[in-house]
Amino acid sequence: MRAVRRADKGHQVAFAEATSREAADRIRNRDVLVSERRPLGEGEYWPDQLVGLDVRPGGGRVTGVVGGPAQARLTIKRGDVAFEVPFVEALVPVVDVEGGYLEVVEIDGLTESTA
Prior knowledge:
It is built from two helices and eight strands.
């Protein structure tokens, strides 16, 4: 992969091997499989590491990660209620992938349903 950028309907990716428009058109809308991931820095996580983590305090489970222009948001389900929390250190100060949980700061209105 040569370059990637966010676009209106997803991402635009440039591959070094696709040197012409015709070559790029042949791979348009195809799934991309990555054989290895880049090393993560301190405080970085892959979405699949976060999905399934228990939420403390208050209970619940992370059911998804939604990308955003400023930061990702965690989708959390607590009982029959689903809500999103910006994935920033001020609101999610502890992530313990090995321990299977993360902590969300309880703020009035934050953990209410988005539906």
